[in-house]
Amino acid sequence: MNFAYTETQQLIRKTARKFAEEKLAPSSIERDEKQEFPHEAVKELGTLGFMGMMVPEKWGGSGLDTTSYVLAVEEISRVDASCGVIMSVNNSLVCYGINEYGTDDQKKRYLCDLAAGKKLGAFALSEPEAGSDASNQRTVAVRDGDCYVLNGTKNWTTNGSTADIVLVMAATDKSKGAKGISTFIVEKGTPGFSVAKKETKLGIRSSDTVSLSFVDCRIPVANRIGEEGEGFKFAMTTLDGGRIGIAAQALGIAQACLDASISYSKERKAFDQPIATFQAIRFKLADMSTNIEAARMLTLNVCMLKDAGQPFGQEAAMAKLFASKVSVQSALEAIQIHGGYGYVREYLVERYLRDAKITEIYEGTSEIQRIVIARSLLK
Ligand code: CAA
Q1: Of 203, 229, 255, which marks where a domain is finished?
Q2: Which residues line ligand 1 (CB under 6 A)?
Q3: pLDDT for 333-347, tens place per residue?
């Protein structure tokens, strides 16, 4: 394995870090408090070419590899994990899904603007009764001439109220279970499509998480991705790639925890010396750093497999499972190192814990990742 970054990858990392520190850091606390979506920052991420990083230039993207994408998501999430997930959903679920499975007409109509960051996308799979059990879709799409009529509710949709374009999974033939699900591209403003409840969340509070409602919403057949019945496989293969983005987001949060803990432990004095001189603190830092590096290796490994065209679902699940665990553990340790200061809003580490927790839940809980890994081992 060769993890030496190319010049392009190093430049992406540097650009992402500079953008995060200069443009995101000053407003991140306030946006978290107010649950405010970073509209301007997302536009600028588009200008930087960070919203469709793996999409070919022909379709408005940056034509980069998965490693570059992971480096950018990590750096953005190191400062603002809300921005990290906004970026991750647009890149690795929406743009990837259309680029990989869409028609040229769909790419022209939707992908070009999504990849260039002129429009924002969302991915609507989860429902009130279909979270981990994703094939249990209650949203239905009934064919009526040149359209499908969509009825149902989606939950936990990241970017949901801001998105211009939503990829919606719905049952076209309930009797066929997972093989009776199809995927549709739904535009904001389509009659019958509305944003329902906005969630008030523990973490990633400046990202946008909502329920979506579809009532007799007519979607042209030309907006179906792939054939009827291919929607579940579409969702599963797209989520395999999405999980790499969430592993990178988790890594970014974990790295932020380590960075904050190193600088705090050098400054903070107890018993007349910096707490960094105490073995109890030094061992925590050593363990955090070792775990983060291991999570990074798993994440870079899956990038290489994906870019080499190898199967990568199991490795993506491993990277997400491990990186999300490391993220939560690192946040807990960072709070412990900061003591009382770690527990208050003024210091960022309490937010890191709130942000880290979601990485063990969305795009497949840790329990689902273990199912995916075990199935792959035992097949
Ligand atoms: N790639 C290709 N095909 C796949 C696949 C994959 N990764 N996973 C499953 N399939 C195929 C299976 O091979 C099977 O097809 P065949 O019958 O032809 O073999 C078909 O799909 C059905 O698969 P299963 O029988 O395994 O389906 P299941 O109902 O047992 O579910 C599961 C499997 C792994 C539990 C799945 O439901 C799952 O991943 N659940 C979690 C869903 C999830 O991650 N949700 C996240 C929501 S999106 C989100 O969070 C976005 C956001 O906004 C941040």
Answers
A1: 229
A2: 89, 123, 125-126, 132, 134-135, 157-158, 178, 232-233, 236-237, 239-240, 313, 362-364, 368, 371-372
A3: 999 999 999 999 988
